[in-house]
């Protein structure tokens, strides 16, 4: 019986080639896009799934009452260890790390690498897979390191790098040699232990090495808020059970400022990746899942409309089946079988399309999507269920509609299309156009917001700004003097306008904040001000605008500082320039020498924060040498800069980036969402036009005699084309009326997440509505033109 159903289904698909093609193409597009998004979501949800004891693993995150204090991803250095040592019945294990970067050398190979000095429990606690070395004793001593497989290949040209020696340039103690005692296998999936805040680390070091990067005994200071901390709870222990112990340890060991402002939250590593950064990944997953659902829904609606509309060709078949004793259940099964067969063909094509588009979508979504043959059992099962569900949903309505008609009318080739069926078909068309317009308008607003980011006056000039990120970090007067000589030498080069040494560039990663007070103010109401450590050339190199006073120079007093406008307002300074301020809890007086116009240091999702500029002379701390270039012959300028850099730092890599590229990277998530939305919008219109082409083709065939009569009575081509255009005009108008308020609400809600945002206007709505009208009208007009110009005799003979 089933084989008979399939045979009949294939015959009907072959007989009605145009409509079969439209249905197969629409469903293939919908299933392919849904499959790509499903695999992306699956891969995102698998982050951290390979870690040991995942249900008991938690990341310790700070919640700050006051603005601009510390990042939420760091906690007091001793907190995780204190919980483990003093509450062993609750905490099974812990891991702390201070992620940073440094220059590393092996013979003539020099690279800037991500370092992760931390507790030696990293391998055993999280079950990281080691290719070489002893997982139980990954670190032999304080001068040993564990590296990734990629790092081993990069430095040594082989994976088995045991007992090889790497030289690492430390901040506090110069160059130090480390012996490789373990090589980690390349991760099949990302995790939140070796990749922290989006930065993947290459070399893992014992905690003692923190002294070389953070300072002596930096890991033993309760008031040093610097560590990314993880704890593993005992089985059966809940995070709520640690609330009391955490509060007790903070109250006993931390200073008053931390006691008053810091809260600690435990975030499960099974959801940490999805929920960090205000749930950015989770939001992306939800948005893409909804878009994929819309695309698939539109393909299903196309199938339903075309199947019901094309049903007159099947009526006599249905009637004869009923006459010869065919039960309605068998007829329903026949139509469902046809739908599933057609969906199966579409699914087969979607696998080929998936493999073809996988690299492109992987690039758009910044995720390596696996090959079809690498799918897990769960993904294969989901895909099969998806195809079956689409086939059943697409076929169930036509099956019940076509088998429910009166036998005599069916035998005469007439179908009883009641009011309900007409309403359903009109409503489904309205739904299709509404979804397309909704997605289109939201996509236009995403584009407007991204354009707003890149066209807004940032308060600084990011163009032609090269930033060297691999300067050796010898944070003392000798190291600073050496770098200043390089800076001054760079400024003598023909292609260089200016150069500056700083700890920060406007990429959203600052050097922390300080509680500041105007001189004489009460010490119980400090303002947290973001700290920027620079030299005297920072303002001129980055194009900062001074509104009062001047920027300090390298020869000014170390107590001279510069504020931004927001800091002046937050500190309630009247004149600003010449006034004295101080750090809360410190009587040292700082003099304000200048005020710079506010500029966007962080992502525009955040308001411009109060900022204070300190000179390098007060306490050398630098990471970047930024160089403003002239526009002529950039390549030659870079080659000259590299040569000069290598002449002074021959054993350091020359790593650099351009500030405009770094700025674009700050909005990578928005750009990724825009690209995905652009694709979805395009697919929506392809499906809509395919569906419209099918419905119009059927309508033209069904109304051929009517067109012939109209032509005999004197109707011209234009009036006949208008006849068919009129049918869709009301549908598109109603779709716009439904879509516009929803699009306004969703776009406004999304834009509310940004402190600085584009304005709401009618332009995107008009553009979306206009393009929808235009494309639909052009398609209908082209299809109608042939029928409208046909010989009336042929039309009147049409059966």
UniProtKB/TrEMBL annotation:
InterPro entries: ABC3_permease_C, MacB_PCD, Macrolide_Exporter_MacB
Pfam families for the chain: FtsX, MacB_PCD
Domain named ABC3 transporter permease C-terminal: residues: 290-403, 685-792
MF annotations from Gene Ontology: transmembrane transporter activity
Coiled-coil parts of chain: none
Membrane protein topology class: Multi-pass membrane protein
Keywords of this entry: Cell membrane, Membrane, Transmembrane, Transmembrane helix
Protein name (database record): FtsX-like permease family protein
Organism: Chitinophaga pinensis (strain ATCC 43595 / DSM 2588 / LMG 13176 / NBRC 15968 / NCIMB 11800 / UQM 2034)
């Amino acid at each position: 019986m089933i084989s008979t159903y399939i045979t009949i289904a294939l015959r009907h698909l072959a007989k009605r080639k145009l409509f079969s093609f439209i249905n197969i193409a629409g469903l293939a597009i919908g299933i392919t896009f849904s499959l790509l998004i499903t695999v992306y979501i699956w891969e995102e949800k698998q982050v951290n799934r390979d870690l040991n004891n995942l249900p008991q693993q938690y990341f310790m995150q700070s919640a700050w009452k006051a603005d601009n204090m510390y990042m939420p991803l760091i906690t007091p250095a001793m907190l995780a260890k204190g919980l483990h040592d003093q509450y062993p019945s609750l905490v099974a294990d812990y891991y702390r790390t201070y992620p940073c970067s440094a220059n590393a050398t092996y013979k003539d190979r020099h690279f800037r690498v991500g370092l992760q000095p931390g507790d030696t429990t990293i391998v055993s606690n999280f079950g990281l897979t080691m290719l070489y070395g002893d997982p139980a004793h990954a670190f032999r001593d304080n001068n040993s390191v564990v590296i990734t497989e990629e790092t081993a290949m990069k430095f040594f040209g082989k994976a088995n790098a045991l007992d090889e020696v790497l030289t690492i340039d430390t901040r506090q103690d110069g160059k130090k040699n480390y012996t490789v005692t373990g090589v980690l296998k390349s991760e099949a999936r990302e995790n939140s232990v070796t990749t922290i805040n989006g930065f993947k680390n290459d070399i893992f070091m014992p905690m003692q090495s923190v002294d070389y990067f953070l300072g002596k005994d930096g890991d033993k200071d309760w008031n040093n808020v610097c560590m990314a901390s993880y704890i593993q709870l005992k089985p059966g222990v809940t995070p709520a059970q640690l609330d009391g112990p955490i509060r007790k340890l903070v109250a006993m060991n931390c200073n008053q400022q931390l006691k008053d402002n810091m809260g600690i939250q435990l975030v499960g590593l099974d959801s940490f990746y999805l929920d960090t950064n205000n749930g950015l990944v989770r939001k992306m997953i939800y948005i893409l899942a909804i878009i994929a659902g819309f695309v698939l829904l539109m393909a299903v609606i196309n199938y339903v409309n075309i199947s019901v509309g094309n049903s007159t060709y099947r009526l006599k078949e249905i009637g004869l089946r009923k006459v010869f004793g065919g039960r309605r259940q068998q007829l329903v099964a026949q139509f469902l079988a046809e739908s599933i067969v057609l969906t199966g063909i579409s699914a087969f094509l979607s696998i080929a399309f998936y493999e073809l588009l996988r690299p492109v979508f992987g690039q758009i979504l910044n995720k390596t999507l696996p090959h079809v043959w690498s799918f897990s059992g769960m993904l294969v099962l989901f895909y099969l269920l998806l195809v079956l569900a689409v086939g059943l949903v697409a076929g169930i309505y036509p099956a019940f509609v076509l088998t429910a008609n009166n036998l005599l009318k069916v035998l005469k080739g007439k179908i009883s299309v009641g009011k309900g069926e007409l309403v359903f078909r009109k409503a489904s068309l309205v739904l299709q156009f509404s979804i397309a317009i909704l997605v289109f308008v939201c996509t236009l607003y995403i584009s407007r917001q991204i354009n707003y980011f890149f066209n807004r006056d940032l308060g600084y000039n990011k163009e032609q700004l090269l930033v060297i990120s691999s300067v050796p970090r010898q944070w003392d007067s000798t190291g600073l003097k050496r770098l200043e000589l390089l800076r001054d030498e760079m400024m003598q080069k023909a292609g260089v306008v200016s150069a500056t040494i700083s700890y920060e560039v406007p990429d959203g990663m600052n050097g922390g904040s300080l509680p500041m007070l105007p001189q004489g103010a009460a010490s119980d109401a400090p303002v947290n001000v973001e700290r920027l450590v620079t030299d005297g050339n920072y303002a001129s190199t980055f194009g900062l605008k001074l509104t009062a006073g001047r920027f300090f120079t390298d020869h000014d007093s170390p107590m001279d500082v510069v504020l931004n406008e927001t800091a002046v307002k937050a500190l309630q300074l009247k004149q600003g320039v010449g006034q004295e301020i101080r750090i809360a809890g410190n009587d040292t007086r700082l003099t304000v020498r200048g005020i710079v116009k506010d500029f966007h240091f962080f992502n525009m999702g955040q308001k411009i924060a109060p900022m204070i500029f300190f000179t390098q002379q007060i306490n050398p701390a630098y990471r970047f040498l930024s160089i403003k270039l002239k526009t002529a012959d950039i390549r030659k300028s870079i080659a000259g800069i590299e040569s000069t850099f290598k002449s002074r730092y021959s054993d350091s890599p020359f790593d650099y980036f351009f500030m405009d590229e770094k700025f674009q990277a700050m909005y990578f998530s928005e750009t990724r969402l825009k690209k995905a939305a652009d694709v979805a919008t395009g697919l929506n219109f392809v499906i809509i036009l395919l569906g419209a082409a099918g419905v119009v083709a059927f309508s033209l065939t069904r109304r051929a005699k009517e067109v012939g009569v109209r032509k005999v009575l004197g109707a011209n081509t234009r009036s006949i084309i208008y006849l068919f255009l009129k049918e869709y005009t009301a549908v598109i108008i109603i779709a716009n009326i439904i879509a516009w308020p929803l699009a306004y609400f969703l776009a406004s809600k999304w834009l509310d997440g940004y402190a600085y945002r584009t304005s709401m206007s009618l332009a995107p709505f008009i553009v979306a509505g206009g393009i929808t009208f235009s494309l639909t009208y052009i398609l209908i007009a082209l299809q109608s033109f042939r029928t409208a110009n046909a010989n009336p005799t042929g039309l009147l003979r049409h059966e």
